[in-house]
Structure formats: structure tokens, C-alpha cells
Amino acid sequence: MQTLDKTHPIQELRTRLAEINDIESAASLLYWDQATYMPPGGAAARGRQMATLRHIAHTKFTDPAIGQLLEDLREYESSLPYDADEASLIRVTRLDYDRLVKIPPAFTAKFSQHSADAYEAWAKARPENNFAAVAPYLEKTLELSREMANFFPGYQHIADPLIDESDYGMNAESVRALFAQLRQQLVPIVDAIASQPITDATALHQHYSEPEQLAFSLEVIKQLGYDFHRGRQDQTLHPFMTKFSTGDVRITTRVRENDLNEGLFSTIHETGHALYEQGIARDFEATPLAGGTSSGVHESQSRLWENLVGRSRNFWEFCYPQLQAAFPQQLKQVSLDTFYRGINKVERSLIRTDADEVTYNLHVMIRFDLELALLEGKLAVKDLPAAWNDRYQSDLGIVPPSDTNGVLQDVHWYGGTIGGVFQGYTLGNLMSAQFFEAALQAHPEIPQQIRQGNFKVLHDWLKQNIYQHGRKYTAAEIVEKVTLQPLSIEPFIRYIKGKFGELYNF
Amino acid sequence: MQTLDKTHPIQELRTRLAEINDIESAASLLYWDQATYMPPGGAAARGRQMATLRHIAHTKFTDPAIGQLLEDLREYESSLPYDADEASLIRVTRLDYDRLVKIPPAFTAKFSQHSADAYEAWAKARPENNFAAVAPYLEKTLELSREMANFFPGYQHIADPLIDESDYGMNAESVRALFAQLRQQLVPIVDAIASQPITDATALHQHYSEPEQLAFSLEVIKQLGYDFHRGRQDQTLHPFMTKFSTGDVRITTRVRENDLNEGLFSTIHETGHALYEQGIARDFEATPLAGGTSSGVHESQSRLWENLVGRSRNFWEFCYPQLQAAFPQQLKQVSLDTFYRGINKVERSLIRTDADEVTYNLHVMIRFDLELALLEGKLAVKDLPAAWNDRYQSDLGIVPPSDTNGVLQDVHWYGGTIGGVFQGYTLGNLMSAQFFEAALQAHPEIPQQIRQGNFKVLHDWLKQNIYQHGRKYTAAEIVEKVTLQPLSIEPFIRYIKGKFGELYNF
């Protein structure tokens, strides 16, 4: 990815982009630190520091000199194939530039500062079950989210610019249509499972010590291919993956000592995100190409590794003896089958991140619909907890006993926009199945290999077809390119019916 | 520290300074992370990221608009008393500005990048005893250090601008004069001690597990007054204190399982630095006033807490029962007297940070003289290990068996300038005794309180007289103000003769 002529405008563009990337990476480190090790006294200044860096990065990216360079590079770009590295760099940079110039840098700083404040308020309010304490922050988040959307006039739905930002090419209408199809298929499956005897998952709810869980999950992800030379894992309140360079891609996790699922699967989930980022071409370092291409594609990788691999029977045929060896007292008497059924127990539950693969998307749809209602002004922030509980009642037949396990459970609205953040989870689930089908078509031996603890062919196929490209292709392009079809709910439904049909005899 | 008029130029100055402070704080976090948690793969980008931020901070600080604001504020400044907060802010900012405008921002970036590279090279070369691997980095450090000095023409000695930067008001000549006096007093003391029987310190060199050492030292510094709400401790290769805001002042430590001294006293040492920073007026947040006033004064606080408190008999009369309770197997049979003599064992040793209070300054003088010789061009980098060993032979009668324990032991030359970095340690030792005498004069009850584990009166006195002022007063001013005398070697010599005269009967 090297143009040798040092005076070529693309070199000047690269230099500027690297500087911006460095500032953004530092801002990411400020966030990682806030969410892992920062003492409480650091919070006030930290919000201001992140806002300052975001403001500088924004100002530098929207410098008219970058606009001019992008103009100067049009001819060069069109002389190259669409997916040449440099053509892609110019195209993706222009996409970002055209979006960012519509947003004033001061707005970015204000939003960043507000997000940091809201995050701190949420971190305190959640264990205290105190929605009232975060409500004023949410009000402001909503106002800022609307303001953000309105920098992109001409939308059909006010959520469209926010959705487009994380899942380029999608909008409220197309997501709604996809979700409606999916719901129609899922609801009868959930009902069919509900009529079956309740799965016994008590084996997973014994006492598992935190250090032993952490040690075991590190061992697992090393085997999956997470590169610890270029990453590490730390503990946090709400797990996330973050990246400071292609050489430093970190994950975070949280552990509950009375629930083996929590730490193990959140670790594998974040590892999926990290494998994606670690797999991006190293040549893309410090450019806008060095990132996942959309929220949905990113989530497809976390969910593929967490579920299609990590919750598969094949995987546990390999891994269960290791787990039993790590926790002999708890698991010596528990059969693989009991364990496998336990980790795939389907139930109408409260917490999205703990939800099984069948009901998970219903959790997402609740949040997506509520986001849209908030943005549309049809739902007031003060009425959000009640609306949340109503939807849990109607969609999942269960009411949260507290906001801690209800509307306060997810960090997203308290650390980012309202709108555009939840659809990616379900898009990711759909894509994960579609990509996995394509991988199996190319390499039918993958399931057998997983059973033997060999993840290399799958990992290489994903790197080759998805990871290495970073943001070179859009989500829609990559889905088409890899699966030869547009995104559809069919592979996911096939997968769910196959796996859970066997588990629950329907 | 609030001027109410929002349009007053000092508000504009504050806004600009806060932005610069935020960028510098982020750069400090990048360094902290590099030295604590960063995976090896992150190193390459990290150096570039730090350089980018330092470059931006430098550029923003030397913006002519800041020069203009400082001009516009001259009249306002002279309307205020010298030590009014705002007058001090303007004066100290001008001092920094006048210095920084002489250095091109690109030089700062180049130096920062080089320091990061040199640090990585050193971290690898030190355990491998590979001076050759760092020699080219040192060559460049030397060249850059000379270049830095030459931005300040008119000096008497090339080290002067570098010394002045860390210890404002000092220069090679004044440091040399002070060191010569000190050496004259110290050498006979070292000789007198050398004629005495060797102290038995074997009790300190049993096996002490790392987690237990860490837990104990955290307990100790909590009692000393380190505020964990505004700080934390992590492990590193070469301990340091760093600050991201007045609400987030962190320390780092390293532990050796066969040496109780190492972890415990490096923790107390860094805590001394942190107490200083945690004690600065919160109003100074995000301004140049929010920092220690000089390398020497900073070191006076680390050494005061490490030595005058932490290695005193009074302290261990209080603390030794706790230590015995934490390590009963190792220490139940060891008397307080044996322990106290052990931690104060004087010997001609290899490692500066492990050195006793009597010989410590001889280690510093070796480094100081070598720095000067390198800068003067009288010593070549390739000859540095031999020169180092010669000086250890002549000054301490001992030759390092390897460069790991010789010229590679200290991080400073590998992560900063050659010149201006070591004199502060001895200046700090001198000041620590001078400040402590003044504290005892004001509060003769302090030794008795320390014996009871009560550090509040001492801590409050230091906050009141030194810490709160941050950079408001220069080192010379604060020494005069607090001790009513200029800096002198007498209090230190009195302290050493008193304490070690008793221990070694001279």
C-alpha cells in the first residue's frame, strides 16, 4: 500500500490521517482506562480530556486541506481499481470527511463530554437501581442525538442518519422490515420451546471463583487464535473491545461467580470482535481503513465466535474435558450433554447479554423500537422504564423486578447516542449465520476440526474473506462478495431451527 | 482562583491552557500504559502516538495567541501581589512559554518518538545485558540533548539549560559546588562505616511473595495518607509517579521476592511524589501551576517519606508489628532492632535505587559527572560502560559484574535527555532534611506521632507549606520561605551523622 512518490498528495493525506488516528487512539485509551483502572477521582477531568481530543481530531479531519486533497486525488482514485488499497483509502476517507464536515467540532466535544458524564452517572445509578439519577442525562442524550441526526437533513426517519453511521446503507425502514420478518419466524419457535420441559442449567450456577474463571477463559481464547502479543484482557463493568493500533487490540470482560456463562461467553464474544480487528491488513495501520466496516459486520464476528463456535456441541466436545479439569468439583459429575443443554437453555429472560440465541433478537427489537419512539418524540424519557417493562411483558412475558435488570442494564444509551446502536446486534446475528454457512460451503471439514480444537481453517477463511479488508468494502458489499447473496434472515433461521429443533424436539 | 469577568483575557488563557493540559495528560496516560499494561505489539504505534500528542501540545502552547495574551496580561499581573494565584499563573505560564518558543515543535515530536523507541530498546536490552543494543539510541539521545541545549545559547556549560529545565535556577557550576561540599563530608562517613562490622540484613532477603508484599505496601501507604480515591498503584519495570489530573495521581512499583526493601521502599518513595501532587490546590487543575515546582523539590518529598519517615526507627516501632503479622514465618524471630539495622545497612553497592542513605548521593554524583562528560564530548557513548565501571571502582570500590547492574540500571538516559536528570535526586535529599528540620521545629511532637502511626500533622504541614503551592514558588523560593535559609548541605549532614552515627558508632 505504498505510493513511492513522496510528494504525491496521497502521502500528505496519509500523514494527516495518521495524526488524526493517533489522537483518536489516545482518546480510546482514555476511555479504556476510565472503564478499567481509573480511580473515581479521575472522572471529572477524564470527560474533559476525551472531549478535548475528540474536538481536536474532528477539527483536523475537517480541515479544508483534507477536502482539497480528496479533490486533488479524484483523478488518481479513478485510475485505480475500485478495491485497490489506495482507491479504497481515498473513498472511505471521503465518506468520513463528507459526514464529519456536516457536524461542528464543538458539537463533537460537547457530545463526548456529555457521554463521559452520563457513563459515570450510569455506573453509579445502575447498582443503586436509580433511573431518576440518569433521566436528566438521558434527556440530554436524546436532545443531542436529535441534533446529530439533524445535521443530515433529508432523512425519511430521524433515526436514519444514526443508523447509517453505524450500519452504512441501512435505515429505519429497512431494519424494521428485516426485523418484522425475523420476529414472525422467531415467535413460533419461542412458543414451541416454551411448551417443552425447562432445561436444567443449575450446573452453571454453582460457585466458580473469579480468578479461575479468568484463567480458563484466557486459555480458551488463546486456542481460538486471539494474539496476546497484540492484546490483553482486563475487567470492566460492561465488556467491550477496543483498539489502539493494529498491534494493540484489547478486550474486557466481567465475571460473576455464580454464573459460568457470563464471563466465559462475554470473553469469547469480545474475542470475536478482536479477531476481526487483529486480522485487518497491517498496511492499513493509522488510516480509516483499519477498522471493522460496520456495527453489524463487527457483531457478526463476536456472535459467530461466541455462538456458532463457542456454544456449539462440536466445540464443547473438544473443550469440555478442559473445563472439567479446571473445575472438577463443580463439573466432574455433569455430563457433556447436560452442560451443552445448560449453555443453550432457551428462556424468556431479562438481560440481553445473557440471553440465548433464540430470544436474543427479541431483546434487541425492544430496544430498537424504544429508540425510535424516543427519537420520534412519541415516548418521553420519564416514561421509558414503564415502556421498557411493558415491552418485556408483552414480548417476553416477564417483567424486570428492578430497573437495574431492566432499562439500566445496557451501557449504550448512557455512553453514546439514542438511535443507531442496537440494530447492529441483530444484523450481526443474521450475518454470522450467513457467513458461517459460506465458510462451511468452502470448508465442510470445519465442524470436524472444531471438534478437535482446530480453528485455523475457519479463522483463516474469515481473515481472508472478511477481516483483512477492514473498511475497504461496505457491509452490503462484503455480504454479497462472501455469500453471493444479499443479507437475509434465512441462514439464521435455518441455523436456529437446526440447533434448537434438536435440543427442544420441534 | 476565579476571575468573574468571562471576557477577561485570563479566561481565554485558561481555556487554552486546559486544552494543552488535556493533551499532555493523554500523553502521560499513553506512557503509563506503555510502562504497565501495553502488550508488546503496541510499542511501534505508541511511540508515534506520544510524539503526535507532544507535538500538538507544543504547537498549541507556542501559538502566538498565547504570547499575545501573556503580553495583554502584563498590566493585570503587576496589579496583583506576586504570589496571588492569577499572578503566579501568568508568571509560570510565561516562563514555560518563553522556554518552549525556543524549541521547534517538530523537535519535540522527534525527541518524544526517539524516547519511546529508546525505552523499548532499553527494556529489552537491560535483562539481556546488551549495552551494544542501546548504544546507537544513546548516541542519538546525546545528539538530541545537545541540540536541545543549543536552543538556549549563552549558557556557561552545555548542561545548564537542561539542568535549569528540571531544577530552575541551578546550573552545572552551582550543582558541582554543592556536590563537592557534600562529597567532602560523605566520604569520611562512608569510610568510618566501612571499618565497622557488616550489618546482618539476611532477614530481608528471605522469600516474600509478590502479592503479599503488594498488599502490605498498599496498607502502609494508605496509613501514610495516599488517597486511593484519587490514585492507584500498578507494577512496572522502573517505578514512577504520574498524574492525569489533580483527581488521578498514580504510582507504580516493582517487587522482588527475595528482597523486601525493593517493593516496600519504592512504593513509599513514589507515594512521597504522589502526596505532593495530591496536595496541590485543586483550583490549579489543568493549569501549569498544577505540578511539582522542580525535580529537586519533588524528590525531596519522595525521599522525605521514604527515608526520614519510612526508614526511621519511630516509624517501625509503629509499623513493625504489622509487618511481622503479615510475614510471621519470616519475621517472628527477627527483632525490631535487627530489622531496623537491616533496612539501614550501609554498603558500597551497585544499584542506586537500592542504595542506603549514606552512599546514595555518591551514585548520583557518578551519573551527574558522566552526563556532563558525555555532553562536553569528553566521553564517547561507546566508552560509557567502562567509564561507569571505573567510577564505581574509584568511588565505591566495587565493579558491576554486568551492565544490567551497571550502566543499564536506570531508565533515565533511555527515556529522556542526557543531562539535567540526576542532580535532582541529590538536591532532593538535601532539601528533604532541610524541610524535615523545619517541620520538627514547628511541630516537635512529630517523631512521637510517627511512633504512634499518626502522620497527619507532618502531612498537613507539608501540604500547607509546600504541596498546595504547586509551581507558584520556585525551588529556591520555597526553600527560603519554609526553612528561612537557602539550600545547604548542613541539615542533611546533621541528619546522616545523627542517624548513622548511632547505628555505626562513629
Automatic annotation (TrEMBL), chains A, B:
Main EC class the enzyme belongs to: hydrolase
One Pfam family matching this protein: Peptidase_M32
GO molecular function, one term: metal ion binding
Required cofactor names: Zn(2+)
GO process terms (BP): proteolysis
Annotated residues for binding of Zn(2+): 269, 273, 299
Domain of life assignment: Bacteria
Family, similarity comment: Belongs to the peptidase M32 family.
Protein name from the UniProt record: Metal-dependent carboxypeptidase
Native source species: Aliterella atlantica CENA595
